[in-house]
Amino acid sequence: MAYPADFKYTKEHEWIKADGKTATVGITQHAQEALGDIVFVDLPKTGTELSKGKSFGTVESVKAVSDLYAPASGTVTEVNENLATAPEKINSDPHGSWMVKITLKNPGELQSLLSAADYEKFVAEEG
Amino acid sequence: MVDFNGWDMPVEYPSSGGIIAEHMAVRTGVGIFDVSHMGDIRVAGAQALEAIQHITMNDASRLAIGQAQYSAMLYPKGTFVDDVIVHRLGEKEYLIVINAGTREKDFNWAHTNTKSFDVETRNLSDDYTQIAIQGPKAVELVQKLTDVDLSTIKNYWFTHSTVCGLKNILIARTGYTGEDGFEIYVPPDEKTSAMVWNKVLEAGKPFGVVACGLGARNTLRLESKLPLYGHEISDEINVWEAGLDRFCKLEKGTFMGSDALQKAKAAGLKRTLVGLEMRDRGIARDGYKVQDQSGREVGYVTSGSYAPFLKKNIALAYVPPELAQPGTPLLVEIRGQCVKAEVVPTPFYKRPKK
User: Fold this and answer.
1) Residue ranges for chain B with pLDDT beneath 50
2) By Cβ atoms counted within 10 A, which residue in A95, B21, B313, B323 is the most buried?
3) Do B282 and A63 touch (CB under 8 A)?
4) Spatial separation of the C-alpha atoms in residues A7 and A110, rounded to whole Å
5) Taking CA atoms, what residue in B is nearest to A61?
6) CATH class of the domain whose range is B269-344
7) Looking at domain B39-126, does it have CATH number 2.30.42.10?
8) Backbone angles phi, psi at B250, to 5 degrees
9) Inter-chain residue contact A62 with B20, CB threshold 8 Å
10) Is A103 an interface residue toward B (CB < 8 Å)?
């Protein structure tokens, strides 16, 4: 599965897609594959302040619990409630299954994240 | 792959579709597990029965040749060295199948504690590749690979016969999934092991057989409330607490741990293993704290997961006996949040009677 070129990526395997000051956040194809069958997501409430690099929730597969790390700082404006009842959507469509929408505090923060090509390389090297 | 007590083991097989697909295959069809990491101890000699009776808690005098029983080796204080399956191979010959994580400890324990008997206790752990074929279609699958009429082997019995052209293979109707199935013990060299593995996969194609890893093995045994060493049983948990009373035969006479268990029985239980079903969103995991409704810490989770067949979040936990009644509301602390759970009857899953 190709990594969308208009997303930015973290080394913790989140993606973020920004449109001006608004952005959506999810986890990558590589992350869902490594986690296996996803059975639970714990996401923040609307209004929660995220800070870049800090945990904002968890995703659980049958075998493991993993933290979700904020790719950028901002305020949660919307949560993808569908994932509460159908977390397996993250497995089948990781790049379409956004978790939270946020209003970015500083869109400039995204510049430090990985491009699709760099992320792909990072994943390949990480093995 | 994960390092499992020094064994390079797959948690899941991506080609099988992952843990949930593997789990469902075993509940509805058939799955195959490489369980070579299990260990084997042979106890043989004039006093084999006496030695087995001394180091295990079940009553091995009830075993016919060709029969096996679930049992455990205990410390003098009535807690677990390991849970085991004892097979009676011959008149004065037994095979104890033990867990991977405790292989060396188990063998040393068995060896040391059988020294005073006229027996030879040998570690045969490296002599077998153990393969488990489990699920409602397991009999049909294995029947294609052997001449022996498998319908004559009852649950917890075994025989020796030809499998995949290999002579004198131990075929036992045992397993760790809550389903019907077999465990076969084949020569450990890579070529033979791979040959058998591939033949099982080939023969199982019409039944939709899939290779299953440690992940599915864990969720399957959890749904069926089968204990796992280091979780439901350990050197700090005794037989009564673990609820394994029916496999512990105090009436057979004195054995390792029996005195302490007599006393523990008289003193009454301080904690007991219960099944929990989560009532709010959240998955209880190993080590999470359990609270009563007032928020008082009363116990801890030993194993917990999403249960793929039941499609519920379930857990096993130790709690005081007064909180063990099905229907009792409890709380599980999950990352700082108290999540509602309820005590439910166990096993969570029981296979339908044929």
Assistant:
1) 1
2) B313
3) no
4) 10
5) B306
6) mainly beta
7) no
8) -60, -30
9) yes
10) no
Q: Does domain A8-107 have CATH number 3.30.70.1110?
A: no
CB B134 within 8 A of CB B30: yes
Query: What's the half-sphere exposure (Cβ side, CA atoms, 13 Å) at B243?
Result: 19
Whether B12 sits inside 8 A of A63 (CB atoms) is: yes
d(CA A111, nearest CA chain B) in Å? 32
The interface predicted TM-score of the complex, written ipTM, equals: 0.88
Q: Which of A37, A42, A65 sits opposite B285 (nearest CB)?
A: A65
Any B CB within 8 A of A126 CB? no
pLDDT tens digits for B209-239?
Answer: 999 999 999 999 999 999 999 999 999 999 9
pLDDT of amino acid B6: 64
A42: chain B residues, CB-CB within 8 Å: 281-282, 335
Identity (one letter) of the amino acid at A34? A
Query: For residue A127, what pLDDT is reported?
Result: 63
Separation of first and last alpha carbons in chain B: 36
Per the CB < 8 Å rule, is A40 touching B335? no
Strand stretches in A20-54, DSSP E = 22-27, 38-42, 49-50
pLDDT value, residue B100: 78
CATH 2.40.30.110 intervals, chain B: 269-344
Binary contact (A39, B306; C-beta < 8 A): yes
Q: Is B125 helix (H, G, I), strand (E, B) or coil?
A: helix
**Both structure tokens of B344:** 């439910």
Q: How far apart are CA A66 and CA B221, in angstroms?
A: 23
pTM: 0.94
Please tell me if residue A63 touches chain B, with a CB cutoff of 8 Å: yes
The Cα–Cα gap between B204 and A71 comes to 46
Using a CB-CB distance cutoff of 8 angstroms, which residues of chain A are in contact with residue B281?
40, 42, 84
Minimal Cα–Cα distance from B285 to chain A, Å?
9
CATH topology of domain B2-36+128-223: Gyrase A; domain 2 (3.30.1360)
Residue B221 CB neighbour total at 10 angstroms = 20
Q: Which chain A residues contact residue B12 at CB under 8 A? A: 36, 63
Does the CB of A58 have a partner CB in chain B at under 8 Å?
yes
Residues of chain A under the 70 pLDDT cut:
1, 127
Residue B275: per-residue pLDDT = 98
Question: For residue A19, what are the β-bridge partners?
Answer: A22
- Set of chain A residues whose Cβ sits within 8 Å of the Cβ of B285: 65
In the prediction, which pLDDT does B107 show?
96
Residue ranges matching CATH 3.30.1360.120 in chain B: 2-36+128-223
